[in-house]
Design goal:
Layout: E1 2-10, E2 16-21, E3 29-33, E4 40-44, H1 49-59, H2 69-84, E5 95-96, E6 110-115, E7 121-123, H3 132-135, H4 139-152
Antiparallel strand pairs: 1-2, 1-6, 1-7, 3-4, 3-5
Helix pairs in contact: 1-2, 2-4
The structure holds zinc ion (ZN).
């Protein structure tokens, strides 16, 4: 798939590097990252039914009672990968919008980023997210999983 390059500066070692992102303006398409440089996965939230499923479970979770629709949409993006996607090859959760890993020091703390202008693109094979762990759960276990991840995130 065609991805757009973004320039990043590492917050720890100040190394400057480029990493791919979904093209600006893409609707309901997300890139997820784990905690290593190679762990990257793709989600088309219009096609993938688990996104709506997790959305509904999050909205009915008592931890989020009274939160605005905007806040809940942000929580959905932050928690969806850990809730419904199989972890990366190192066992770490994928997260929508997670920052890339610095190729120099391995930190995931970014001081500065900007979309490169004029735009630069690369063509890269990005595997779609997979859900076999999530799909093996019954509806009670799914609600429990959502509650656990929200709790881990501090809600
Ligand atoms: Zn660094």
């Amino acid at each position: 798939m065609k991805l757009q390059l973004v320039k990043y500066i590492c917050g720890v070692c100040k190394f400057e590097f480029k990493a791919p992102q979904i093209k600006a303006g893409a609707y309901a398409e997300f890139l997820l990252r784990g905690q290593s440089m190679e762990s990257i996965a793709y989600l088309d939230a219009m096609e993938d039914k688990t996104y709506d499923e997790v959305d509904a479970l999050i909205k009915s979770n008592p931890r989020l009672t009274g939160k605005s629709a905007n806040v809940i949409a942000g929580i959905l993006r932050k928690s969806y990968g850990a809730i419904a996607c199989n972890p990366d090859s190192e066992g770490n959760a994928f997260q929508i919008g997670a920052l890339p890993v610095c190729p120099s020091c391995g930190s995931q703390s970014i001081e500065y980023w900007e979309v490169i202008a004029p735009p630069e693109f690369i063509d890269r094979v990005v595997p779609p997210v997979t859900h076999s762990v999530w799909q093996s759960l019954n509806s009670y276990e799914k609600a429990q999983k959502v509650d656990q991840v929200l709790s881990d995130l501090g809600y």
